Every structure is written in structure tokens, then in C-alpha cells.
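Hello Y.,

Per our agreement to keep a running log of every chain we model this quarter, I'm adding this entry. I've kept the format consistent with earlier entries: sequence first, then predicted structure.
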Amino acid sequence: LGSEEQKERFLPQMARLEKIGAFGLTEPAHGTDVVKLETTAHRDGDSYVLNGHKRWIGNATFADHVIIWARGDDGHVGGYVVEKGTPGFEAEVITGKTALRCVQNAQISLTDVRVPAENRLANVNTFRDTEKVLLASRFCVAWEAIGAAIAGYETALAYAKQRKQFGVPLAAFQLVQYRLARMLADITDMVCMQYRLSQLMDEGKYSMPRVALAKMHYTERASAILSDARDMLGGNGILLDYHVARHLCDIEAIDTYEGTDTVQALIVGRDITGYNAFVPMAPNGHH
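Predicted structure for the entry above:
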């Protein structure tokens, strides 16, 4: 969403991993309804002054460039590249996470953070433009769910072959074979669906409902696969040495970020019915 000049200024070093970036959209009070974000960007001469808070922002504690999404004076959302060391920008690691422990998510505070006007992304005029990024990121997150599911299946299969009970490997039992077969069927279904979605992405025929359908379906099936895998490992299933518990925790986070299971379902539901069910009813019965 940047201009050619902005892409040339920021992307080459990031592509070489000499610089690290972060994406700051979610706020403490706005996850699913992030379209209502409260962080502001006020134009002041040749700069924008940012104020507000962000939460769950990966890499933000050490990133060189953090794109902060904020509402401008005109009420529309824009993207602003905040560079490392800018006064007023504070990022603190969120601790106590049970999932995605390899990622340093941060709580960000923005207090009169001054950003040069040339650091405002040139091709963002409304939140609709932000959704172009979310579409691509949800597509990537869908792959994460497939990866977690495959990891659970492969671990369960290997364990069932070597673990013996009643004198025979677990893999020799009918119920174990049924579970493994169902896992493989679900994974095959997900991979084929994602392969087709990848083709559509390449052809420019992607859409948010299609990506939402994939993300919703994969996380649901991956969660079931990992739950079965953990059970098949018995007591060893809760040990980090076998990784299944780690993946089971991670799929809970994957189910939540980039839109929860229910949010994805409502995106798909709106597309196939024509009715928007996102807006809840107020106590007086009005939207």
C-alpha cells in the first residue's frame, strides 16, 4: 500500500532481514471490531502526531519499522510507518501466553508520536484498503492451521507405530487406525482446498469470503486433529517433548487471530445470504 518511493525506501533492507517490520492494527478494546479503532493521527505541519494504544503486535518490541493504523482528521484510517527510537513510542512484551510463545507480542502506547508526512502509506485512504492486507494475511494464517494439523498427524502416526500396549503397537488397534484415517482425510481436504485457493490468488480471483471460508474450516479441523493426537499419546501428549500440546495451544491462538471462527463464518454467511449479521441488536431492539 506504499508508493514506489516508500517501497524502495523500506522494503529492500527488510527483504534482506537487515530491518524488521511490524503490523500495528489491533487495539486493547478493538479486536474483532477493529474497524472502530481509536488511535488517532493528527496532521501538524509536515508531520502526523499519533496517540493511542495497540495490543498483540508481533515484533513490536524490537522492530525497526512499525506500521501503525490510525484514524486521521478526516475520520478515515491510514497507515503510518513509525521508525525505531521515535519519542513517545513504547512497546512492552505481553507475558504469560500459553500459545505462540515463539512470538513476542506487545502492548504499544503512543503518546504524541511524531511521524514525518512522507511516512504515511500513500495508497491507504479508507479501512477498505487495510482489508487488502488482511485478506493476504488470512490466507497465510490458513496455511499455519494446515501445518499444525500435519504436525499433529505425523506425531500421532509415529507414536502409534512405536508405542506398545497389551503387547502390540497402538497402530494395530481399529480405533487408532480410524482416527488416523480421519486425520489424513481432513488434511487432504484442507491441502486440496488451499491449493485451489492459491490458484485463485495467482489469478487475481481471490475474495475475502473465500479466504474466510478456508481459515474457518482449517482451524476447526486442525483443532479436532490435534485434540485426537494429544489423546492418542496418552499422558505423553501433555509433554513438550512430543510437541503436540504446543501445537494444540497454538491452534487456539490461530483460531482467534486474523478473525475468530465465528467472524469468518459471518463473512461467508453475509456473502451467501446477502444479509449482514455482524451488527448486534441493542437492548431496545434497534441496530
